[in-house]
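Notes from hallway chat w/ T.B., transcribed later so I don't forget. T.B. wanted the structure written out for a chain they're using in a teaching module, and asked if we could keep both sequence and structure tokens in one place. Agreed to drop them here.
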Amino acid sequence: MKKYTYTEKKDTRSGFGAGMAELADKNPNVVGLCADLIGSLKFEKFIEKAPERFFQIGIAEANMIGMAAGLATEDKIPFTGTFANFSTGRVYDQIRQSVAYSGKNVKICASHAGLTLGEDGATHQILEDIGLMKMLPGMTVINTCDYNQTKAATIAIADYEGPVYLRFGRPVIPVFTDENQTFEIGKAWMVNEGKDVTIVATGHLVWEAIKAGEILEEQGIDAEIINIHTIKPLDAEAILNSVKKTGCVVTAEEHNRLGGLGDSVAQLLITEYLAPQEYVAVNDSFGESGTPDQLMEKYGLTANDIVAAVKKVMSRKSENL
């Protein structure tokens, strides 16, 4: 098992803020829009560098999306920012009609995704957003795993022509990816090569998958771990090549098991290569208030839950031999 270490922990939303600060210097067409959550989205440095290119919309998310579509029509590159729940559920009609339908070059940047925004509870958490956004034709969907990857993704999507949903979070987590990485949309990252089981993980659960891989190694199980940061378009080749080698797969995500990464992988396997699959995801429920660690434990999203899923899927694989 390849060893991953870290010297600090940061929230992924700060990676977004750092990426936006860099774009303020690099790309004069990038503009920022925020729905009354400047601090939560870490827009401060962008505003310091380019105040004339920032728009505080207030708690009017639908208007924010409409304004972003208009700015894109004038060849600007708008980055909208609010909580993931308000970036999708509250404004889905505006995204569908004003952005996706016409393929506008709008970057919908969504913080506080999943369960781990914590104590704010189910009204502010969202576990359906990946499913909502990947259903929109032409929408690219990205879910990053740490500070460095989020910063790199933020910078990369500015050069991509078309609508993008960029999903990141609130909790402080290990920074374990390369600081100077190149982010390639639609290209999976091979975290660890293995031969016994494939673990396909996204977002905050990539670190949990790494911890699970270390536990499994101690038990004689060699896990291949793949970071799918781009859920749409899915890197089908990377997943299929791995599953054909290992014969089984576990998908891990901080999202409802319905409509997320797991379902995308299942659809791929049904059509291309039948193999046993187990999900590590929230099982068709809303969240609740609690600390991130409490919620990850209660809803079955920890490294130990990934280990249990690996044992189950490998048992199913052996039954099919």
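Follow-up for T.B.: The longest strand covers residues 249-256. Might be a good example for the class.
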